[in-house]
Write a structure and sequence with these properties.
By secondary structure, the chain is an alpha+beta fold. It contains five helices and ten strands; from the N terminus they run E-H-E-H-H-E-E-H-E-E-H-E-E-E-E. The chain has a five-stranded antiparallel β-sheet. A three-stranded antiparallel β-sheet has the order 1-9-10, with no helix packed on it. A hairpin with a 5-residue loop joins strand 3 and strand 4.
Length: about 180
């Protein structure tokens, strides 16, 4: 299975400001997730920021954290928001999105999310909710969130490409890098 490494494409001032924040907490087990949720009680109701780092580990940070801070400024395999429900053995992942305007990950990053959640002993939901489609306008250069399959730039009305084009990305193969 091929996974993609996404680079940060958000504002440089956010990257610089995020450098002083600790990276997200690695979650290697259900117990790690429960401990993190106990330390961040607001996350039970509002969710959390997550990334999947290049080692395939889920990392969590409080909901209003920048994804680039959660990732320690590094590339990611996936980024977005995550919501949990329940506690202890009944802890489940209710929803996961790829909503990160800092990394703008393409929808195939779902594979990395599934692997990271399973490695942490958590069952992933069936798919992203919501699933965000990002495209960069080839005319004006702005990043767009495509809604209802309407591939038209909201800034200049140009047609948006059908394929993901936010930035160059590296392909990683399970068991080794390309």
């Amino acid at each position: 299975m091929d996974l993609f490494a996404y680079t940060y494409v958000g504002p440089e001032e956010i990257r610089r400001a995020s450098a002083s924040h600790p990276a997200g907490t690695p979650i290697a087990s259900r117990q790690d997730a429960e401990a993190w949720l106990q330390a961040h009680p607001d996350a039970r109701s509002e969710g959390a920021t997550y990334v999947v780092d290049l080692q395939g580990r889920l990392r969590l940070a409080p909901r209003r954290s920048e994804h680039v801070a959660c990732a320690g400024g590094e590339e990611v395999l996936a980024a977005g928001e995550i919501h949990f429900q329940g506690t202890g053995l009944r802890l489940t992942v209710a929803e996961v999105s790829n909503q990160s305007t800092g990394y703008c990950p393409d929808t195939p990053c779902w594979d990395a999310v599934v692997l990271a959640l399973q490695a942490a002993g958590l069952t992933p939901p069936p798919r992203f909710a919501p699933e965000i489609v990002f495209r960069r306008c080839t005319r004006c250069g702005e990043v767009n969130l495509v809604k209802e399959a309407w591939f038209v730039c909201v800034f200049c009305d140009a047609d948006l490409p059908a394929e993901w084009n936010i930035s160059p990305r590296r392909t990683l193969h399970l068991g080794g890098r390309e």
